């Protein structure tokens, strides 16, 4: 059965995944395990450097600079420890993505429209992470500020598995997991990896099945079938 051709986002991410993102995730896994074995204490910084390198590779130096600039501005505003100011900063940074002159300038950085959209998606998601870090910085007392340094913010913002699409993990949870010292067990880690691969494969197959059977996007992009259907059918 043919695939629904109207689901742009699914086709878009599948293409990027096959070309680069899947391989970069595999690289992250390798760096994570090697750093756990050899330099457990510096694992967050190893993953931070890897995430920055992956960002540079996919988005170029200008795209990398935009994300770094957003993180720097968010951290600077968080120093005032006012939640309202943090929200305003985040909204202003997001609004810059819709300024026509800025959009046009960013499009010129790339050869294809897909590369520009990758920057757009990534910056939007990174803005959520910057907001999360800044809010938690505002909420915590002076004694906890040392664990919310700019270096930790970069480790959080450039953590690659959540880099393009999330999911969103708040900074406290991220920090807790990164600081936790775990004994290395090949059997346990291999089991976690296999279960993770099975889960991803299952949901991927389910999504593909829906695209080939349900034609959701093709339906809502065509007015006549929707107008002909009853309210119960639409519901």
Automatic annotation (TrEMBL):
Q: From which organism does this entry originate?
A: Fulmarus glacialis (Northern fulmar)
Gene Ontology CC annotations of this record: endoplasmic reticulum membrane
Topology relative to the lipid bilayer, per the entry, is: Multi-pass membrane protein
State the compartments where it is located. Answer: Endoplasmic reticulum membrane
- Keyword Cell membrane on entry: no
Read off the Pfam families from this record.
Answer: MBOAT (PF03062)
Q: What's the family?
A: Belongs to the membrane-bound acyltransferase family. HHAT subfamily.
Keywords (A to Z) from UniProt: Endoplasmic reticulum, Membrane, Transferase, Transmembrane, Transmembrane helix
Q: Which residues cross the membrane?
A: 20-39, 46-69, 75-95, 116-135, 150-169, 190-216
What protein am I looking at? Protein-cysteine N-palmitoyltransferase HHAT
Q: Which Gene Ontology molecular function entries are recorded, alphabetically?
A: palmitoyltransferase activity
**PANTHER family on file:** ACYLTRANSFERASE, PROTEIN-CYSTEINE N-PALMITOYLTRANSFERASE HHAT
